[in-house]
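Backbones bend. Shown next:

***
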Amino acid sequence: MEVYRGKVLSKFGSHISTDDMTSAKYITSHEPAEVAKICMRDIDPDFPKKMAPGGVLIAEKNFGCGSSRETAAIAVKAAGTQVVIAEEFARIFYRNSFNIGMPCIECPGIHAATDLGDELEIDYAAGTIKNLTKGTEFHFVPIPEALFHQLEVGGLVPLIKDRLKERNNK
């Protein structure tokens, strides 16, 4: 998974909060498939339909601000998002995303330089995003190897289970 290709299927501006992602007024379950259905309901009711599995979500600044609700990251991922690329993330959403196995990339300038439908090639190890549609390239701080391994195994809980299993087998 070091290199990923996907299409930009959704774009959002700045200050998209966790309440925007999973408003408490709509939550009736914490199951991923259920929270995916209400994801972004008040700002883009069609988001779950637009975000096909493997899609890329682009945002401006402060994506994931607000409360620490983990359901926000779960809903974004369960709706089909493979990776979120933003100018800047709220830290709690950023960590929650990695904890559930969804990468987040901070990349200044990406929002204005991409359009819906653009095909991107993301090299996580090299820290590059190539917009194959437009022939442009962006750079970001590569995801550290340990954190990338956490993504590969599906998140923090699967990583801990693997480590415990390894320890018990010694």
User: Anything to note?
Assistant: The two ends are 29 Å apart (CA to CA). The mean pLDDT is 93. Residues 54 and 82 are 5 Å apart (CA to CA).
